[in-house]
């Protein structure tokens, strides 16, 4: 019998590049999903297929990374085998997705979480929510080789309808915050560009942020105040100062936005999005020309409360908070100007905060 599971992609309202820096984040799962069907077969192998890609098969005794899309799925098999000693037998897994890849909405985490959620149910593994997101992260870190933080997998597992999740990535304490936007919409503008070679840019920012912390003489960014940062400035190279400035200021912005959401003050939220973007662009240097163009265009349009890049950066998407009544006009103008400037047809769509991964039809 075939069973169907799905796991959402995510947006992050604010708190970018903070999850691996002992910071705060504010993600929401969205109504875009990786959908996976799974069926036991009498064959000995695990067979993977995904619309429009090369099919992949592997035996349970030969789970090695191959440098292709199958690694995100295999990585889950790998971690489950090492912590739960499961015998999977023959399986056929088919994947479909409405989460665009490399667009900053974390298709990779959605794929991992869809896989672990399916295997958890089909093999009765009784994994907790926390095990599902932690093991998914571990698969991406250890098997795929991308040093992502915990936010993406966390959001894909824990998402809730019309809510964002305020997460402390140190204690892993979290709180759902209502994100019922009323007269506003969240709109994603996908630039369709990816300038990052493999995971180079992301991993090097991680390393620079770590080095900045070392220069500051602290164990955790949680112990770095703005005052610490100002007083360390004379002995810090400008690059490390700016990397640390982004982390410290972005964490402060997350806390401010949490207050703002409690009052449903969406005009204020937009201002923080813009500040976050400037910090990511100038201090953390993870934006690019195309993304800056989209943000600048949005900032000058009526009905836009604010906008910023989301995800790892070097391309991907912009998240904007727009007045609903103006949304269509805004999308049209940004699309047109973007095409004129870069000759690239962008994608733009509204997203809604949605619930986390689970079986379909339950
Ligand atoms: P993102 O920001 O979307 O997570 P990543 O580079 O981390 O970008 O992950 C994208 C990778 O995840 C793709 O290159 C592919 O290997 C894999 N992936 C994502 N969605 C799918 C899918 N529907 N089918 C197969 N592989 C996918
Ligand atoms: Mg990813």
Task: Explain how this protein is built.
Residues 72-160 form the GHMP kinase N-terminal domain. One of its GO terms (molecular function) is ATP binding. The protein starts with a strand and ends with a strand. A six-stranded mixed sheet has the order 5-4-6-3-1-13, covered by helices on one side. The protein has a four-stranded antiparallel sheet with strand order 10-11-9-12. A three-stranded antiparallel sheet has the order 2-7-8, sandwiched between helices. It folds into two domains: 3-179, 2-Layer Sandwich (Ribosomal Protein S5, domain 2); 184-351, GHMP kinase, C-terminal domain (Alpha-Beta Plaits, 2-Layer Sandwich). Strand 10 and strand 11 form a beta hairpin. It is built from ten helices and 13 strands. Helix 1 (70-84) crosses helix 2 (107-122). The chain has 362 residues and is α+β, with helices and mostly antiparallel strands. It is 41% helix and 24% strand. Magnesium ion is lined by residues 106, 108-109. Residues 106, 108-109 line the site of magnesium ion.
User: Can you tell me the number of structural domains?
Assistant: 2
Into which percent range does the helicity of residues fall? 40-55%
Described by the principal axes of the CA atoms, the overall outline is globular
Quick one: CATH class of the largest domain? Alpha Beta
Average pLDDT taken over every residue: 95
**What's the main sheet like?**
6 strands, mixed
User: Structural class of the helices, strands and pairings?
Assistant: alpha+beta
Q: How far is the first residue's CA from the last residue's CA?
A: 15 Å
Strand content: 15-25%
Corresponding CATH architecture of the largest domain: 2-Layer Sandwich
Low-pLDDT segments: none
> Can you count the beta strands?
13
CATH topology heading of the largest domain: Ribosomal Protein S5, domain 2
As a whole number of angstroms, the C-alpha radius of gyration is 20 Å
Instruction: Please state how the strands of the largest beta sheet are arranged side by side.
Output: 5-4-6-3-1-13
Q: What ligands does this structure carry?
A: adenosine-5'-diphosphate, magnesium ion
